[in-house]
Queue: 4 jobs
Job 1
Amino acid sequence: MSEYLLFLAIALYAGWGSAFALAVRKGARLSLVEYFLAGRKLHWLIASLSYSATTYSAFMMLGLVGLTYRGGVGALGFELIYLSGLFWAVLVGPTFWKLGKTWGCVSPGEVLRAKYRSRLVGTTYALISCGFLIPYTSVQLTGIGYLLEVLSRGRIHYFQGVLLATFFIILWTAVAGLRSVAVTDSLQAGIMMVSSLAFVLFLVHRFFGGFAGLFHAVETTHPQWLTVPGNGFFTFRTFVNLSLPWFFFSISNPQVLQRLLVPASLQEMRKTITGFLGYGFTYTIITVTLGFAALILLPGLPNPDLATPRLLLEFSVPSWVVLFVVIGILSAAVSTADSIILTLSSLFLQDILSERIPEKTKLSLAQYVFIPLLCGTIFLFSLGRFNLIALLSVTSSLGLLSVVPTILGVLTKGEKSPKAAILSMLSGALVVLIQLAGVHLFRGWTAPSALAVAFGVYFLVQVMDAPR
Amino acid sequence: MGKGILATFGILVALAYVIPFTLLSEVPRFTGSFLFWIIFAGGAITLLFFIMRSWNE
C-alpha cells in the first residue's frame, strides 16, 4: 500500500467527518438533552447505525480477527452470545426509556439516582463506569496507532497515529455532542460494513475460489480451530470468562445504555434495536471469516491482532478496498471512543458535579474541560502500547458487570435500597480488581464470581434493608 | 413479557454454552459449532423480535 493512499484515506476521513459534525452543530448547545441525547429525536436509522458503530469498535477488525486466528470458532460463539445479550436491553429498554422521559434524565446514572432515590447511587455508578471504561477507550486508540504504524511501514509512528485519533475524537464529540457523534457514526457504520464485506469477498474469491474453498482449507489444515476447546485456547472457563461480560454488555456499558434514553418512542427503539441486530449478525460473520482466512494465508503470526493490517499489506488487495478498510477501522475505533467520551461526560456532569451548576455552565464544562481532559487521559493510557486488544476490551466489560444487578433492580417493584445498589456495585468491582491484580479467587472463574458477588450482595442487603 | 419467552431464551443461551463443548466438540467441520452458533443467533434474534412486538407505548 502506498503512503499516498494512506494519507488520502486519512484526509478523506478527516474531511467528511468534520464536515458532517459541523453541519449538524446548530441548536446542539441549547440544552443538555439536545447535547447528550440529540433532543430525543434521532431518526431510527441514524440511531441504529450509530448504536452499531458505538458497539462495534476496533476490536472487531483487529481483536476479533486476532481472536479467531488464535482460538478458532470459539470467537464466533463468544461474539454471537454477545449479540443475544441484546435481550437485556430489550428487557430494561421500555422501563429505562419511560423513566428517562418522565424525569428528564440525560445520563443512565440519573435514572438510577431517581429510581433508588439516592444521588450516591448515581455517583457510584458514574465513578465505576469511568474507571473501567478508560482502558477500553484507550484500546481504540491503540488499534489506530498499530494500524497506521504497520500500514505506513513505521513512517507514521504509533504516537502520531494515536495523537491524530485523539484529535478527531475531541473535535467530533465536542462540536455538537450526540448529534455530531450520531451522524459521523452512521456514515462510519456504513463504511465499516461495506469495506469489511468487500475485503472478505475479495480475499475469499481471490485466494480460495469461494467460501467452499476457504471452509475446505480450514477443515483440512486446522480442524482443531473448528471446535471448542479445540486447539486449547477456548477452554470452557476462558469461554465463560470472555463471553459473560459481553452477554451483559448492552446494559453494563453506559454508552449503549444511554442510547435507550434517546428514541422519541418505543416504536423507534424497536426499529433501532432490530436494525442493530441485523448489522451485528452480518458484521460478526464477516470478521470471523476474515480471521479464518488470515489463519490460512498468514500462518505463524506472532501478534494475531495485526492479522488484518498484514493481510492488507502482503496480498495484492485492490487500492480502493485497502482505502475503505483503513477508513473502516479508523471509523470503528473513533466512533466507539467518541460515544464513550460523550457518555462519561454526561455522567460526570449529572452524577458527580454539583447539581447547582447552571445548565449552560455545564455545557461549556463538557465541551472545553471534561471532553479534552478525558481524551488526554485516554491518550496517555494508550501510550502504554498494550498488545492485547481483546483482553483489555473484555477486562473493561468484566468490571462493568458489577453494575448489572443495580440496573436490573430498576425493573423490580417496591422500595429499593440505595445501600444494596452501592454495596453491590462496590463489591462486584472490588472482586474484579482483586482478581485482575493477580490474586486467584474462585479458581479463575472471574466473570461468574464478579456477577455472583454483585447479585448476592444486592439481594442480601435489599432484604436486610427493606422497610418493615 | 411471558415467563415462557424468558424460559425459552434462558434455555437457548444455556444450549449455546453447552452444545459446542459437548456434542460438537469432536466435529471439526463448519457444519459443527460454527453452524450451530449461527442458528443460535438467528433463534435469539427472532425471539427478541417477538418480545419487542409486545411493547406498548
Job 2
Amino acid sequence: MRPDRFTPTNGAAIWAGKWAANILIALALVAPVLAGLLGAVLPAVGYFPALGGEALSLQPAREFLATPGLWRAICLTLFIGIGTTALALAGAFSLLIIAGGGIGRAGWLRRLIGPMIAVPPSAVAIGILFLLAPSGWMMRLVSPWLTGLTQPPGFALVPDQTGLALVFGLLAKEIPFLLLVSLAAMATLPARRIIATGAGLGYGRAASCLFLLLPLVYQRIRLPLAAVMVFALSVVDMPRILGPSLPPPLAVLAVEAFEDADLARRFPAAFAACLQIVVSLFALVIWRMGEGVTGALLQAVRRRGARLRLAPLITISLACLAALPVIAGFAGLVAAAIWSLAGRWFFPATLPTALTLRYWERAADLAPAMVNSILIAVISAGLAVILTLLLIARGGSWRPLVYAPLLVPQVSFVLGIQMALTMLWLDGSWLAMVWIHTLFILPFTWLILAPAAAGLDKRQLAIAASLGAGPWQRYRQITLPLLAPAITTALFVGGSVSIALYLPSLFASAGRITTITLEAVAFASGGSRQMAGVAAMLQLSVPVLIYALLQSWYRWRYGGFAGMRAGGLH
Amino acid sequence: MASPILTNSLRRPRLFWLIILSLLSPLSANSSDFNTIIDAARGQTVYFNAWGGDDKINDYIAWAGGELETRHGITLKHVKLADTGNAVSRILTEKAAGRTSGGSVDLLWVNGENFAAMKANDLLQDEAWAETLPSWRFTDAEALPAIRLDFAEPTEGRESPWGRAQLVFTHDSQRLPTPPRSAGALAEFIRVNPGRFTYPQPPDFIGLSFLKQILLETATDTAPLYRPVEQADFDAVTAPLWDWLTTATPNLWRGGKAYPFNYPTLRQLLGDGEVDIAIAFNPADASAAIARGELADTVRSYIHDSGTLANVHFLAIPFNANAPEAARVVADFMLSPEAQLRKADPRIWGDPTVLAMHHLMPEDRAGFEALPRGIATLSEADLATTLAEPHPSWMKAIEVEWRRRFGGG
C-alpha cells in the first residue's frame, strides 16, 4: 500500500522530518476539522453561549423535526443522491466503452471534458433552465414559425418537483468528472492487454470491458464516486434553480434555516446540518449494499459465460443518453456566453435582438480579484497536493478526516472554523484564506492521488533499491515521476475547486481579500442573466487557464517518455 | 466655511438669526462633538458590507467612497454581499469568539428582521448615535415615522436611515393593459388567466411581503397585525389570507407546484413572458431593468388602490466595529442632501430619499423636484398611499403556516 514509507533506520533527519510532517498535519488538518465539527455539533444540542444557549437540550432537534414535509425531503434527497451516482456511473462507463475502452483514442474526450469539470454548478443549472424552460432556447428555436406561439406555453419540464430535472443537471457536471477520474485510473491498467485477453476468449469489446476492465476501474474510482454522491446529496444552488422546492432537499432546508434572520433558528439549523451528515452516511451504506448485489449479479452472468451480444447496442444507446446532459451543459454554457453580450433578448427571438459590451466593461474592474483568485488557487492546490503526498507516505488513522469538509454541510463547518480563526486573530489574513482553501481541496487531491499511489508498480522501487538508491532518491526519481499524471490532475481539480469556493472564502476573507467568485456571486445575485453569464465566464476562465498551463507543462516535461505519453492531463 | 456664502446669508436677516439660534441651541454641542468624531475618523478604513447585486448601486457606493476620501480622509471599502445574513453570521461568530473590538464589519446595510435580530442579540453599537448625526436635521420623523420604526421595531438611534422602499407590482402594458389593483381583483385575474401569476417562494422576503400585503388587504381588522403575534388569535386574523391562497394556488404559474426562488427570478419570468405580473420592493426596479434590457420597454408599474407595504432601509454599526467613528461619518454623509439627491436620481440609482423636503435648503429642494422619473416609475403622488409593515413576529408565523399548507408537497 505504501510504496515509499520512511524507515527509522535513516537517522535523525528522517525522524525530524516525520515529526515536522506530524505537526504540519495536526495543525493544517486535524485542528481545523475538529473546530469545524464542534461548530456543527454543539449548537445542534443547544450549546451556543453567544445566542444564550448555555445548556444541552433536545429543543433544536424537536424544532427541526417538526418541519412540514421533512420525511419527504429526506427521501427525495436519498433518491437524488443515489440516482445521480448510479446514472453518472452508467453514463461515464458507457461513454468510456464507446470511446475505445480508454485506449489511445480517448485524448480528444479528455480535452473536451476537462474544462467542464471547472464550470460552477449554478452556471450549469442556469444554462439548463434557460435551455428547457417553456420560454427557453429550445422553444425559441421552433417559435413562432413551427409552434405558432408568441407567448411561452404553460407546460414545463423545469423546474420539476420529482427531482429529475435536478438529477439531469447534476449529471451534466458529474459524468465528465467520473470520465476524467476513470481515464486516470485506466492509465494505470494494462487496458489493451485485458481487452485482448477478452477477445481471445471470444468476447466482444463491450463484454470484455464490462467483465474484465470496468470492475478494475471501478475499484479505483470508489472514492470519487462517493464524492459525487455526497455532492448530489448536499448541493444547494442547483435545486433552487431546477427544483424540487415543495419540499426542497434536506440541504436546502438546512441552509434556509441558517439564512433565517431570526438568529434563534441557528439551533435547529445546526441540527439539520448534523442530520445531513447522517443521511449522507446512510446513503453511502445503501450504496455499499448495492455494490455487493451488483457484484454478485455480474459474477453470476460471467460464470454462465454469457457473450452479451446485445451489449454493444445497449452501450451505444446508454452512451447517447449519457451524452444528453453533457451536451445540455455545454449548450447552457454557450447560452451563458451569448447572454453575457445580450442587450435585449425576449421570447420568441432565437438570438439577442441587441448586443452590448456593457457587462464586459465592468469585468475590467475585477482584475485584482482575478489575481487574488489565481494566487490562492495555485498556492492552496500546491499545498493540498504536498499534504496529500505526506499523508500517503506517512499513513495513520487521521486520514478519514480528509473527507470532513465534503461530508459536513459547508455552512456549519465554515462557521466552526471561522470561530477558531477569529479567536486566533487570523480571520481576514492570507494565511486563513489559503488554509481554508487547502482544507476544502484536500478531499479531491486525496481521492485522485491515493488510488494512483496505491496502484504503483512496487517492483520498480525494488529495482531502484537494489541499485543502491536511498528512500528519498527512490521517492524523487521513481515515485514522483510515476505519479506525475495524477499530480497534474489533482492540481487542476484542486485549482478548480478553490476558484469556485464561495462560503469559505466569504468567511475567511472577512471582506479583506476579494476573489473572483465572491465578486461573481454578489454580481449575479441581482438576478440578471447577463451578469450571471459574465460571472460564469470569468469563473471558468481561471481553471481553463490552469488547465492549459498544466497540459503544456506535462507535454514539455514528459512528452519524450513513451510509456507516459498516453497519460497527459487526466 | 467659505466666506461668500456667509456674507450672502448674512444679508438675509431671517437666516442670520437662524444661524445665531443654531449656535446657541444644543445642536451646536452635537456638531462640535461630531467634529471630534470627524477628526478621529481621518485615516480610518470603513468596511461597508452591502448587497452587491446591482452595478448602479455599486457605482454609487464607489462615488461616495471617492468623496469621503477627499473630504475626510476616510477609505471606504465596499464588501459586496449576495445575502446580508452572511455578514450578520460573521458578526455573530465574532461575538461568540470574544472579539469585542477590531471586528470585520464597520458598517452594514440592513433593515427589518436582520436589524431586530441584531438588536435583540446585542450585535449593534450601544449608543443612540443615529440622531446625533448633523444630517439628521434634514429628516422629519413625524412625517416619516418609519425612520424611527423599522418594521414596528424602534430603532432607538442604533441605525441611520438611508433610503425608502415600497412594494410595487409591474406588468407589461402591451399584454395586460389594465392590471388588477386590489387583492380581490388579483384573485379574479388569477381565476380568469390560469398560470399567469406567481410570487417568490417563502421564506423569500418579497414572497412573504406579498402574503402580508394580501393579509392587510383582506383582514377584517388590521390592528392585531401591529402587535406581537403572540397577543392575537393567529388563525382568526389570518383566515382570509389562507382562503385567498387556497382559491388562487391551483391557478398560479405551474399550478402552484413550483415557485420562483426570489424576486429577480420572478422579474425574469415577466421578461420571458411566462407571467403577466411581477413584484418588486423598489419603485425604480422596473425602470432599471428596462434600461438593462431585462424587461421590455412596455413594462409599467402600479400599486394597489388601498396602498402597499412601505419601509425604510438603514445603515447600522456593529458592536465591535473597527472604525466606529469613520462609520458614523460615512452614515452622516450618506444622509446628506447632496448624497441623497444623487441616490434618488434614476440615472444613478433611483432610491427614494428619506429626507423631508420642508427641512431642506431651497436649492436642494429644487434639485429633488427637478429629478426625472424612470419610464416605469410611479410619481411620488401615485406612491403616496402606503401600508405600514406589521410587527416582525408575524413574518415568521406566516412563513411557518405557509410551509405547513403549501410547502410540504
Job 3
Amino acid sequence: MRTLQVAQGVAWRTLHNVLTNPSLLIPSVVFPLFFFTAFAGGLSNIRNVPGFDFPSGYTAFQFVFVLLQSAAFGGVFTGFGIARDFESGFARRLLLAAPNRAGIVYGYALAAIGRWLITATVLTTVALAVGMNVGGSGVDLVGLFTLALLLNLAAVLWAAGVAMRFRTMQAGPVMQFPVFVVLFFAPVYVPLALLQGWIHGVATYNPLTRIVEAGRGLLSGDPTEVGLAYATGVALVLLFSLWALRGLRSAERAG
Amino acid sequence: MLGRRSVVRTVRQPANVIAPLLFPMLLLAVNSGGLKAETNLPGFPTNSFVAFALAVPFIQGALFATMNTGTDLARDIQTGFLNRLALTPMRGTALLCGNLGGVVVLSLVQAAVYLGVGMITGVRIASGPAGVVTLFAFAALVGLGFGALGAFAALRTGSGEAVQSLFPAFFVFLFISSMNIPRNLIEATWFRDAATANPVSYLLEAVRSLIITGWDGEALALGFGIATVVAVVALAASSWALRVRMAR
C-alpha cells in the first residue's frame, strides 16, 4: 500500500510539473508531430519503390514508427526530470521521506505513461485527421498501443537507471543516444525486406525491429510476429526494471 | 589574437569538435542504409544514396557551427569577458571576425572529414578536384554565415540556453527540405512547396550538384547566392547587435 501511495505522489508531482511547464510539455508533443510530417509527408513516394507492399499506405507505415518513437522518447524525457530532481536535491528529500523507495521508480514510470498518453492522443488525432488508413480491428489497435506502452515503460526504466546512477543532467546524452541509435537502426523508412547492406544485418538482430514490424502489422490488420514482439517488449521491461531498481540502490548508497 | 583564441577554444572542447563530426555521420549512415531503396524510384539522380545524402552533413555541420559560436560568445557575455573587451580600444569588427575564425576552421575540418568518409564509401565527386575546392569554399561560406547567425542570437539574448533553444528551429528547416529526396520526387504537394520555399533546399542542392551532377551553374548560383545573402545579413545583424552590446 505504501509503495502505491509513494508511486501516486511521485507520478502526480511529475505530471503536474510537465503539464504546468510549456517548455517540458510542448517539445514532447511537437517533435513526434514534426517527425510524422517530415517522414510521412516528404517521403510518401517511397510507397512506389518496387517491393513496398504495405497495404495501409505510407502515412500509416510512418505513423507506427513515430508512435513508437514518441513512446521511447517520452520515457527518456521523464528520465531527464529524474536527473533534474537529483540535481536540485529534491530526489534526496524524496529518498528520505518515502517509506518504500521502489515506489519512487514506479511513480516516475506512471508519470511517463501519463505523459506519453497525451502525445499519443494528439499524434493519433492528427494522423486520422490527415486521412491515415487503418486496416486493423479495435483489438489490433489495442495491441499496437499496448506494444508502444511497453516500449515507453522500458525507456523510462532505462533512463531512470541512468539518472539514478549519474544524478546529473549531464547524463542526458547517455539516456538519449542509445535509444536514438536503437530506434533508427530499425526499419524506419522501408520494411525490413527492402533494407540492403549492413543496415539489414543490424536491423535483423535489433530487438526493436520485431516491435516496429509487429506494430505495422497490427495497424494494417495483418498481424505478424506479434508474440515475439510482446515477448521482446516484456523482456525489455523486466531487464530495465532490474537496471532501474539497482540504480535506485546506487542512489541510496550515494546518500 | 581573438581568432586564435576562438580556434583554440573550439579545439579544447571535445564536444564542440566531436558532435559536429559524429552526429552528421551517424545520420548519414542511418539514412543511406535505410533509404537506399529510394534509388529505385524512376528519376532518382544517382544509384548511390550515400552520394545523394552526402550533402546533408555539410548543412547539418553548419547548424552545429551556429550553436557552437553562439554558445561560446554567450559564455563570454555571461562571464563578463565581453565587458572587459569593451574597455579596450578594440574594434567590434575585429571581435566578430576573431570569434568566427574558429567556426570557419571547424567548417573546413568538417568538410574534409565528410568528403573523406564519402570517398572511402565509394563516392566519386563528379565535378573533380576543382569541385572539391569549391565544396571547401562553400562549406567555409555556409559556416561563416550560420556562425554569424549564432553570434547574432548570442549578442541579442546574452544567454547560451537561448542560443541552444534555436537548434530545434534550425532542425525543422533541415527536415522540411529536399534533404532525403529530390524535390521533383516529393509527392505531397504541400511538402514540395514548403521544400521549394525553404532556402536550405538550395544549399543542399548546390553541394549535391557538385557531387552527383558535375558543374550545374543554376544550382551553384542559387546555393552560393543564398549562402552569401545569409552571411552578409547575419554579419550585418551581428555587427549591429555587437555595437548595442558593447556601447561604451
Job 4
Amino acid sequence: MNMFARNDKSFDANAASTTPARDKTEAPVPPLAEPKRTPPPAPQTYEAATPQTRVASVISKALKITGQLESTEDIQVDGEVDGDVRGVSVKIGSNAKVKGTVYGDTVELAGTIEGKIEAKKVILTSTAHMAGDVVHQDIRIESGAYIDGHCRPEFGKAATKSAHAAAKPVATASAGSVRDKPGSVAEIGTRV
Amino acid sequence: MPALSRLALVPVPLGNDGTEFAASHLGKALTIKGRLETIGVVHIYGTVNGQITADRLVIGAGSFVEGDIIANDVRIGGRFTGRIYARHVTLDGTADITGRIFHHTVTVAKGARIDGRMPWRPLNFFERLEHLREAQ
C-alpha cells in the first residue's frame, strides 16, 4: 500500500507541475492508451482523372514524342511527334508538328505535318502546313493552307496496303491533284 | 555511370508565349512506342513503351509503362517495368512495379507490389541528371 501511495503522490506532483504549462500551450494531448480514431485519409484522386477536354488523349504543347502513337480513340496533338500517329479522330493543333504519317478516320490539320496523311476525311485549316501526300476520300482545304504534295482520293481503295504505307507506284504516277475531287473542294489553298 | 548519358534529358523546344503548359493526357486506348519528353506534366492511362522524361508524371491505375522514367515527381498506380529516377516517388496501392526506383523520398501505399530495389540517392544525384538536360 505504501508503495502505491507514494506513486500516487509523485504522479499528483507531476500532474500539478505540468498542468499549468499545458493550459498555456494547447488542449491536453489524449492519452496514448486510446488513440484518436481518425478515418484513414481518402485516397488522393488524380487531378486529370476526368480531363476537362473531351478528347481522349492530348499531347500538350510541351510534350515531344519520338515514336509511334496508336489509339482506338481520338487524339489531339499540340506538341511535337516524330513518328506515326494513328487514331480515330486526329487533330493536329496549330503549333503542333508531326514528322511521319497520320492515319485516322478524320484528320484535322492546323499545324505542320512533314510526311503523309491517310484518312477518310481530311481537313486542312488555314494555318495548316502539309509537306507530303494526302490520301483521302473527302477533303476540305481552307484558304491559306499550304500543301506540298499530292492529294489522292484513294483512301480505302487499297486499305490493307496503304495502312502499312505500302508504295503504289502505278497509282502515284497518274493520280495528280485535288482536281480529282472537285466537288468537295471549297477553296483551294495557295500552293497545291 | 554510363547509363546516365543515355538517359540525358533533352530540352523540348517551346514557344515563348506560355508560362504554363497544359498537362498531356494519354488516354486508356493510346499506345506509344517511343520516347516522351516534356518539361511539364504527363498523365498516362494507356500503354507506353519507352523512356519518359517529365517534370511530373502520373501513371494511372490500369496503365502499363515499360522503360525508364526521369522526373521530379512520379506517382504510379499502374503496372511499370523499368527504372525510375525521381526525387519524389509515390506508389499507390494499385501499383505493380518491377525494377529499380532511384529516389530521394518515397511513399508506398498499402497494397503496392514492388519487385526490385529502391536505392536512395541524395538530391544532387538528381541535379546531375538535370545538368545533363541543360548541357545538351
